[in-house]
Design a protein that fits this description.
The protein has about 500 residues and is an alpha/beta fold. The chain folds into two domains: about 120 residues, Rossmann fold (3-Layer(aba) Sandwich); about 230 residues, Rossmann fold, CATH 3.40.50.300. It is built from 22 helices and 20 strands. A hairpin with a 2-residue loop joins strand 1 and strand 2. Helix 6 crosses helix 8. The radius of gyration is 23 Å and the shape is globular.
Length: about 500
């Protein structure tokens, strides 16, 4: 019988006075993928950090009947032994790439750190780092691409969210770890890149690597998982083969996750009013290692009152830059943005944690954002599906990723906007929470005439909420039209590739 790479029995974690994990049992064998799925706040990320010995740093109390990892009893490992274990035998890919990567270090240094600690010679280290970056889907060389050496010299702030996530994945695979714990590894990735990353993880599994995939992305689970464990309230409530859990769920929590997954087109078409924002000929250039490049290159877009415009494209295609140009956070190098008189715009950012003052409570964040007779912080939190008593006096760092994103949406609504520009607003949310947020945005569109620019890499989500869709590639809108027209009969080759990747 094959010895498991990970064997956990009765794992219990107490953090901040609360029982976060309550008797978790897990096992991962070589060449196997176990997916752990559940809602935001269910304990998934705490589980990931605990399996790497990181929660004790947070003051957590950790206990287990059995906790064996890579043949060692992790209950008795000192911190020095954990440091030797991480990277060499087990690697972690975290959900929040911007917070995980050191902003002052180059990508080459970040990805190659495990090899440097082991004393791998510089030339070999460089070659293996480039191989890992290429395998993880980070572009290297070629037309309109960053040269390999220049890529290694870049820092996290110079990469898009999806590129940062791929750099994290490269860091995990470069050292040849036998077990990879991946916490939402495809959250920030567009459909085609996600397929490539999942293919990479699948190949690693086929070569004998054990994979613990922690995610709310059921399409990712269906592609790569052998078994699925459903976590709810810190407990494993269902466990079985991927086929069994996905097609014959036994527990209500599992059935709720599957029912909430976005499918099909938007329920009803909008009846939009006049234009509330029009952009013509937008160009935004940034300096790069090989000279200036245009992140947005001649883009024309317009949004009418009561309309949702979906913007899709690969990571690095210019979606976030377009969002910043539309909201006035950046000025275009060419082109113009025209707003209807008195129109107010607010951005819901991709990285909510980085947009909050860490010293402020949620209540203060919302009070500072309020305009005029806007709803109270309590009412705003209720509007986005949060329990005010549970979060009002907490700070952003103590919230789950899903809770932080909902607070970001509440903050935007506090300003009583006419237009919401949402940059990946549900990318960090489990499918049930995601469904509630999408319903909220559609309700705001219908009842208040709110215009929404909805930027996402998730085509199923965009299809559910959007009236029109613009497809971006390399800073250019390559296709635009009605949602069902674009998804049902795509005209551009790139759009066809996106749709094919999303449908799997």
């Amino acid at each position: 019988m094959t010895t498991p790479l990970l064997s956990v029995r009765g794992l219990r974690v107490r953090l901040g006075g609360a029982d976060v994990l309550r008797g978790v049992d897990l096992e991962v064998a070589p060449g196997e993928c176990l997916a752990v799925v559940g809602e935001s706040g269910a304990g998934k990320s705490v589980l990931a950090r605990t399996l790497l010995g990181l929660t004790r740093r947070d003051g957590a109390g950790v206990a287990a009947d059995v906790f064996d990892i890579a043949g060692r009893d992790a209950r008795r490992l000192p911190e020095r032994a954990w440091r030797a274990l991480r990277g060499a035998d087990v690697s972690l890919v975290l959900q929040d790439a911007l917070q995980s990567l050191d902003p002052l270090r180059t990508i080459g240094a970040e990805v190659g750190e495990t090899l440097a600690v082991r004393g791998v010679p510089r030339a070999e280290r460089r070659s293996r780092v480039l191989d890992a970056l290429d395998a993880a889907g980070l572009p290297l060389g070629g037309p309109a691409r960053v040269e390999s050496d220049a890529r290694l010299r870049q820092r996290p702030g110079q990469l898009s969210g999806g590129m940062r996530q791929r750099a994290l994945i490269a860091s995990a695979v470069v050292g040849g770890a036998r077990l990879i714990v991946a916490d939402e590894p495809t959250t920030a990735l567009d459909a085609t890149t996600a397929v490539r990353v999942l293919g990479l993880l699948g190949r690693l599994r086929d070569e004998g690597t054990g994979l613990l995939l922690i995610t709310h992305d059921l399409s990712a689970v269906a592609r790569v998982a052998d078994r699925i464990a459903v976590i709810d309230g810190g407990r494993i409530v269902e466990h079985g083969s991927a086929e069994q859990v996905l097609h014959a769920p036994a527990h209500p929590a599992t059935r709720a996750l599957l029912a909430a997954a976005p499918t099909g087109p938007k329920p009803t078409a909008a009846a939009p009013g006049g234009p509330v924002i029009e952009a013509t000929g937008l160009v935004r250039r940034y300096p790069g290692p090989s000279g200036a490049f245009a992140a947005v290159d001649g883009v024309d877009v317009s949004v009418r009152r009561g309309e949702v415009l979906g913007v899709v494209g690969e990571s690095g295609s210019g979606k976030t830059t377009l969002a910043r140009l539309l909201t006035g956070l950046e000025r275009p190098d060419a082109g113009e943005v025209h707003r209807a008189e008195g129109a107010r715009m607010r951005l819901v950012p991709q990285d909510p944690l980085g947009s909050f003052d860490p010293r402020h409570t949620v209540e203060r964040i919302l009070r500072l954002a309020r305009r005029g007779a806007a709803p109270s912080p309590t009412a705003l939190l209720e509007r986005v599906g949060l329990d005010p008593a549970a979060v009002l006096r907490r700070r952003p760092a103590s919230l789950s990723g899903g809770q932080r994103q909902r607070v970001a949406i509440a903050r935007a609504l506090a300003a009583d906007p006419d237009v919401l520009v949402c940059d990946e607003p549900v990318s960090a949310l489990d499918v049930t929470t995601q469904s509630g947020i999408l319903d909220l945005l559609l309700d705001l569109q219908r009842t208040e005439g709110l215009a929404i620019v909805f930027i996402s890499h998730d085509l199923a989500v965009v299809r559910r909420v959007s009236d029109r869709v613009a497809v971006m590639r390399h800073g250019v809108v390559v296709e635009e039209g009605g949602t069902e027209s674009v998804f049902g009969d795509p005209q551009h080759a790139f759009t066809r590739d996106l749709v094919a990747a999303a449908l799997g």
